[in-house]
Automatic annotation (TrEMBL), chain A:
The protein's name in its UniProt record: Sulfate transport system permease protein
Species name: Heliophilum fasciatum
Membrane topology qualifier: Multi-pass membrane protein
Annotated signal peptide: none
Occurrences of domain ABC transmembrane type-1 (ranges): 75-276
A Pfam cross-reference name: BPD_transp_1
SUPFAM superfamilies tied to this protein: MetI-like
Entry annotated with the keyword tRNA processing: no
PROSITE patterns assigned: ABC_TM1
Automatic annotation (TrEMBL), chain B:
Location in or out of the cell: Membrane
Span of the signal peptide: none
Protein name: Sulfate transport system permease protein
Phylogenetic lineage: Bacteria, Bacillati, Bacillota, Clostridia, Eubacteriales
One Pfam family from the record: BPD_transp_1
Main location: membrane
Record-annotated ABC transmembrane type-1 domain positions: 51-254
Parts of the chain that traverse the membrane: 12-31, 51-77, 89-111, 123-147, 188-214, 234-254
GO cellular component: plasma membrane
Subunit structure, interactors included: The complex is composed of two ATP-binding proteins (CysA), two transmembrane proteins (CysT and CysW) and a solute-binding protein (CysP).
Membrane topology annotation: Multi-pass membrane protein
Record keywords: Membrane, Sulfate transport, Transmembrane, Transmembrane helix, Transport
From TrEMBL, chain C:
The name this protein goes by in its record: ABC-type quaternary amine transporter
Keyword Heme: no
Originating organism: Heliophilum fasciatum
PROSITE patterns: ABC_TRANSPORTER_1, ABC_TRANSPORTER_2
Record-linked InterPro entries: AAA+_ATPase, ABC_SmlMolc_Importer, ABC_transporter-like_ATP-bd, ABC_transporter-like_CS, Mo/tungstate-bd_C_term_dom, P-loop_NTPase, Transp-assoc_OB_typ2
Coiled coil: none
GO molecular function annotations of the record: ABC-type quaternary ammonium compound transporting activity; ATP binding; ATP hydrolysis activity
Annotated ranges, domain ABC transporter: 3-234
Cellular component, GO annotation: ATP-binding cassette (ABC) transporter complex
Gene3D superfamilies: P-loop containing nucleotide triphosphate hydrolases
ATP-binding as UniProt keyword: yes
Pfam families: ABC_tran (PF00005), TOBE_2 (PF08402)
UniProt keyword list: ATP-binding, Nucleotide-binding, Transport
EC number: 7.6.2.9
């Protein structure tokens, strides 16, 4: 190992700087502009064009397109039915997730794998399935129609379709939190003398609440947007089964882009709002508001003297 | 104990009612038609064309979105710039956009009367009501999958392995192929599976941009829709069953991936 | 391979100055310890020498070659990371072979070199294992073998022993020391454990708040610290702040000669506990004290004492003596060595 001279080596520096530093910077720039360009062409410009086309004619035209009876009805019924579907799936999904995590169900692996099936099945096929189950030719459909209940080509069909395609959301949002929570917290609460209900109410529910809310948000926004299964099951009957996405499709086919655009923008605003809420607000809040409600409730009880012997 | 029995039976009942019911109904209706009839339906030229088109779109979309999804994730995690949170949110937007609206927006931007579409038309290229439009629509709805899988994986892996490779003399190119990519390969595979599933099944967005022209722009899901509308139930069942079978294969793949990853962590 | 650092500084994007104008020179074949509390800038300096962090100012020379603008790939250094940063998707053999493969060595050369390295770090037979199938000590040796594969001119180790438990740490550090001496490779390791630094380094560099506090052999650092901080960081001390009055320290009974420190100067006086000697009490002794508490520490007793004028002092005394001391017992003291620092 020969000692090297200091001066000749030092002169190499500008060369090294010239050959190695720029390619790294160049690579970063190339990466940045490639991704930006792609996102621009694929996502941002289309949204911009939608806003431009719809709002070109001024606000009055936008409001008129929105309050047009068909459009207004479609929006209302979509919001209402999506809410019903979301409530049903949030409740059932939470119960199912609880069972899947806490109880040794026979065939648990299979059930767990089945949960994701609605994500994997094309929505048009999901619609066809529901049509086969509840349609006029099926025995279920016939039975219901004996009692005067319409399912297919009516609002119950839409709710069923929404429930089917959003089946996994709540389960998949609650499951990991329950799993991560483990038994320790529950056992700790039990050793402090809490009963089954108190454990559920004060320990388990507050812990999984973020998951339940996330599940609800995702279910609701997906149900709002659903098209394929709904159009198969419910058809396209104005003032009866014409949901917003079906309405938009019809207006696009008719070439009424402003009519389609107005409803689209309202739906997008709702979905984006929920997305932002999901991404920012809820992550920051975590257990916040439920804890506060519980704390207030506990304090009130304390004031009433019910809990006075808890004081140590 | 009652508690447990109640919740467990409810879970079974709910799975049966809302999941297995519809799937069973489709199977039963298909069986009624008879296997030979369904088999024949699969080989109708229109059906074959639709399947081939879906396959073609899926392959192209998977390639493009895998490459760009990984690049986007790399940009977000490894080279954060001011405004990276905005990009991070934009990536999620396709999840929040109804497929119908996605298709509609693409018609507005790339349609024959638009600036870009008009220019392409003059050059002799058709985007909307043609294959490119269907590809772009599918790219749109599947873009978040790869990014969402790879971003957390990159964050978890961290930069120390890459730094170690640097000090051992590896070039950025070698580091990417030999260190970064292998350490996130599980997530990349998962992202591909999700992208494939969504591409095969995409309906709304593709319906709007394709025009649903038989033997031209009719993909498999559009064929199912058309067949059901035309009361060609055998045709609808045949392709539906094929798509379902593919979904189940995909699901099994995903499950085995999960097991593989859990096994590695243990 | 010698290494020289001139006026090196680093400030991060958030404006935090991690390193402020550090200069030093380390000799060939030496094992150097970067010692200091966390946030002292020692890891940042190591990462700048490795090329993983870009200096904000200053120069770095390895064997006289200026390297601060070279990327890590071109510096020919080996780095052992704190968490080892082993390639999780490669087995032990591939981890060690990585640097050689990158250099496009012939397969038989790689084979031979990796075998030789694994033999050196005592890991024969584990070639096919993956990192998550290895113990902490084994992982560290893989990281070491990997860092040595390309025959680096400089070996850098970032807190190399912090991820293993106490018993293993002792074994590993003497083993690493021996390996370093066998290979005669210039090495730097970062640590916040003064015992580790004193035990295996030829030379210790003490950093504090991004500045070089002192550089010297372990003996120099321990016995003649340049600052009260170094004295306190490398061992236990009794520390007193006072002024010089009548040519001695104004500490009641502890009147140490001021030497050439001027009258009225504010000073810090440092006395190491092992330099406090206890003797049977005699009325004639210059310094007398009362035992407040004794604590058994294995090799010796730690004795807390109170002197006249409420001055307190801690002494380390041999077992035989310490065991016999009772609380409130009166003893005589002798201070064998002190160090006086001027307060700026």
């Amino acid at each position: 190992m020969k000692p090297l001279q200091l001066s000749p080596q030092a002169e190499r520096v500008p060369l090294a700087r010239a050959t190695t530093a720029p390619p790294m910077e160049l690579g970063k720039w190339a990466l940045g502009s490639m991704v930006t360009g792609y996102v621009l062409l694929l996502i941002i410009l289309p949204i911009g064009q939608l806003l431009l086309t719809t709002l070109e004619g001024g606000w009055q035209r936008f409001i008129a397109a929105l309050t047009q009876p068909h459009a207004w009805f479609a929006l209302q019924i979509t919001l209402g039915l999506a809410l019903i579907a979301a409530v049903i799936n949030t409740v059932t999904g939470t119960v199912c997730a609880y069972a899947l995590v806490r109880y040794p169900l026979p065939g648990k692996r299979v059930l767990n794998a089945l949960v994701d099936l609605p994500f994997a099945i094309p929505t048009a096929v999901s619609g066809l399935m529901l049509l086969m189950l509840y349609g006029p030719k099926s025995w279920l459909g016939k039975t219901f129609s004996l009692y005067g209940i319409e399912i297919v080509y009516a609002t119950p069909g839409i709710v069923l379709a929404m429930i089917f395609v959003t089946f996994p959301f709540t389960i998949r949002a609650v499951q990991p939190i329950l799993q991560e929570m483990g038994q320790e917290m529950i056992e700790a609460a039990r050793t402090m003398g809490a009963n089954r209900w108190q454990v559920l109410w004060h320990v388990e529910l507050p812990t999984i609440l973020p998951g339940i809310l996330a599940g609800f948000t995702l279910t609701f926004s997906r149900a709002l947007a659903e098209f394929g299964s709904v159009v198969m099951v419910a058809g396209n009957i104005p003032f009866k089964t014409q949901v917003a996405s079906v309405y938009i499709y019809g207006e696009v086919e008719n070439g009424d882009f402003v009519g389609a655009g107005a409803v689209s923008i309202v739906l997008l605003l709702i979905s984006f709002g929920l997305l932002l809420y999901q991404n920012f607000w809820m992550k920051r809040q975590r257990f916040g508001w439920w804890e506060r409600i519980l704390a207030r409730w506990t304090r009130r009880k304390e004031r009433a003297g019910e809990l006075e012997n808890w004081d140590i | 104990m009652n508690w447990r029995i109640g919740i467990s039976s409810f879970t079974y009942a709910w799975f049966l009612l809302s999941l297995l019911g519809p799937i069973g109904a489709l199977l039963a209706s298909a069986v009624d038609e008879g296997a030979s009839r369904l088999w024949a339906e699969l080989f109708r030229p229109e059906a074959l064309f639709a399947l081939k088109l879906t396959l073609l779109i899926t392959v192209i979309v998977v390639v493009i979105n895998t490459v760009l999804g990984i690049l986007t994730a790399l940009l977000i995690v490894r080279h954060p710039f001011p405004g990276v949170t905005v990009l991070n949110t934009i990536v999620d937007l396709p999840f929040a956009v109804s497929p119908i609206i996605a298709g509609f927006m693409l018609v507005l931007l790339y349609g024959p009367n638009s600036l870009i579409g008009g220019f392409a038309g003059e050059m002799g290229y058709k985007i909307i009501f043609a294959l490119p439009g269907m590809i772009v629509a599918t790219l749109f709805v599947t873009f978040p999958f790869m990014v969402r899988e790879v971003v957390p994986a990159l964050q978890e892996v961290g930069t120390y392995q890459e730094q170690a490779a640097q000090t051992l003399g590896a070039s950025p190119w070698t580091i990417f192929w030999k260190v970064t990519l292998p350490s996130i390969r599980g997530s990349v595979f998962y992202g591909i599976v999700l992208t494939v599933a969504r591409s095969l099944g995409e309906f709304g967005a593709v319906l709007v941009v394709s025009g649903n022209l038989i033997n031209q722009t009719q993909s498999a899901t559009l064929y199912v829709y058309q067949a059901a509308a035309d009361f060609n139930s055998a045709g609808a069942y045949a392709l539906s069953l094929l798509l379902c079978a593919t979904s189940i294969v995909i699901l099994v793949l995903m499950e085995s991936m999960k097991k593989y990853q859990e096994g590695r962590q243990a | 391979m010698s290494i020289e650092v001139r006026n090196l500084s680093k400030s991060f994007v958030d404006g935090h100055m991690a390193v402020r104008g550090v200069s030093f020179e380390l000799g060939e074949g030496e094992m150097t310890a970067f010692l200091g509390p966390s946030g002292g800038g020692k890891t940042t300096i190591l990462r700048m020498i490795a090329g993983l962090e870009k200096p904000s100012g200053g120069e770095i020379y390895i064997s006289g070659q200026r390297v601060d603008h070279l990327p890590p790939q071109e510096r020919k250094i080996g780095v052992v990371f704190q968490n080892y940063a082993l390639f999780k998707h490669m087995n032990v053999f591939e981890n060690v072979a990585f640097g050689l493969r990158v250099q496009k060595q012939r397969p038989d050369v790689i084979q031979a070199r990796v075998r030789e390295l694994l033999r050196r770090v005592d890991l024969q037979g584990l070639e096919g294992r993956f990192p998550d199938q290895l113990s902490g000590g084994q992982r560290q040796r893989v990281a070491l073998a990997r860092a040595l594969a390309n025959e680096p001119r400089l070996l850098l180790l970032d807190e190399p022993f912090s991820a293993v438990d106490a018993q293993l740490r002792k074994e590993l550090r003497s083993w690493v020391r021996k390996l370093q001496q066998d290979l005669h490779i210039t090495s730097i390791f970062v640590t916040h454990d003064q015992q580790e630094a004193l035990e295996i380094a030829d030379r210790v560099v003490v950093f504090r708040q991004g500045q070089l506090e002192q550089i010297g052999t372990p003996e120099e650092i321990y016995d003649s610290p340049d600052t009260p901080f170094v004295a306190a960081f490398v061992g236990e001390v009794n520390r007193y702040r006072t002024v010089i009055k009548n040519g001695v320290t104004d500490l009641g009974v502890l009147q140490f000669p001021a030497g050439n420190v001027p009258e009225g100067q504010e000073v810090v006086v440092i006395v190491r506990p092992e330099n406090v000697e206890l003797m049977p009490w005699s009325a004639a002794a210059d310094i007398q004290g009362i035992v407040l508490a004794t604590t058994f520490l294995g090799e010796f007793y730690k004795v807390d004492l109170e002197l006249a004028d409420l001055v307190r002092i801690t002494a380390h005394v041999p077992k035989a003596l310490g065991g016999a001391l009772r609380e409130q017992e009166r003893v005589a003291l002798q201070i064998k060595a002190t160090k006086i620092f001027n307060v700026a």
